[in-house]
């Protein structure tokens, strides 16, 4: 009997696919942008959006669900709440974007850049004049 299975298989079994999604989410959260194939990016994009929606919600149950989706990775969890939570407070959906890149040279696979729409800007440096002591 043919079952209607939701999602993309990506030529992997269930555990390998789960590990792939976790590693892609981890890389995206920690670096802000990843370069991967179009198929992998399209497969992991809904997972990232679900996690970001849970971050926005912010209650205890959501925090526990995020930790379970991330495999209890405290570093990624902390980065999500410190760096990304403030950026998404005004956004309801569409937390990530795909930008096309040239095809991969070896196998001509379609490559994309997956990044967050709202990018954290580095804090501006105060360029006030430094007071220097002059010798008199």
Annotation keywords:
3-stranded antiparallel β-sheet, globular, 50s Ribosomal Protein L17, Chain: A, 136 residues, alpha+beta
Description:
By secondary structure, the protein is of the alpha+beta class. The protein has a domain at 34-116: Alpha-Beta Complex (50s Ribosomal Protein L17, Chain: A), CATH 3.90.1030.10. It has four helices and three strands. The chain has helices at residues 14-31, 38-57, 60-69, 74-84; strands at 33-37, 96-100, 111-116. The chain has a three-stranded antiparallel sheet, with helices on one face. The longest helix has 20 residues, at 38-57.
Strand order of the largest sheet: 1-3-2
- Backbone structural class: alpha+beta
Shape descriptor reads globular
Average pLDDT: 86
Q: Strand percentage, roughly?
A: 5-15%
CATH topology of the domain at 34-116: 50s Ribosomal Protein L17, Chain: A
**Poorly predicted runs of 5 or more residues:** none
Mind telling me which CATH architecture of the domain at 34-116 this is?
Answer: Alpha-Beta Complex
Rg is 20 Å
Kindly provide the name of the CATH class of the domain at 34-116. Answer: Alpha Beta
- The H/E string reads HEHHHEE
Number of discrete helical segments:
4
CATH superfamily heading of the domain at 34-116 = Ribosomal protein L17
Instruction: Please bin the fraction of helical residues.
Output: 40-55%
Biggest sheet, open or closed, and with what strands and sense? 3 strands, antiparallel
Task: List how many beta strands DSSP finds.
Answer: 3
For the terminal residues, how far apart are their CA atoms? Answer: 93 Å
């Amino acid at each position: 009997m043919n079952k209607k299975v939701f999602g993309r298989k990506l030529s992997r079994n269930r555990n390998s696919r789960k590990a792939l999604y976790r590693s892609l989410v981890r890389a995206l959260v920690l670096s802000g942008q990843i370069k991967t194939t179009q198929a992998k990016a399209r497969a992991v994009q809904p997972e990232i959006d679900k996690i970001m929606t849970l971050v926005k919600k912010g209650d205890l149950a959501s925090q526990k669900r995020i930790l379970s989706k991330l495999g209890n990775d405290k570093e990624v969890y902390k980065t999500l709440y410190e760096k990304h939570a403030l950026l998404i407070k005004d956004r309801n959906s569409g937390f990530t974007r795909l930008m096309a890149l040239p095809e991969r040279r070896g196998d001509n696979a379609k490559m994309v850049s997956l990044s967050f729409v709202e990018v954290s800007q580095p804090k501006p440096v105060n360029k006030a004049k430094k007071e220097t002591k002059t010798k008199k």
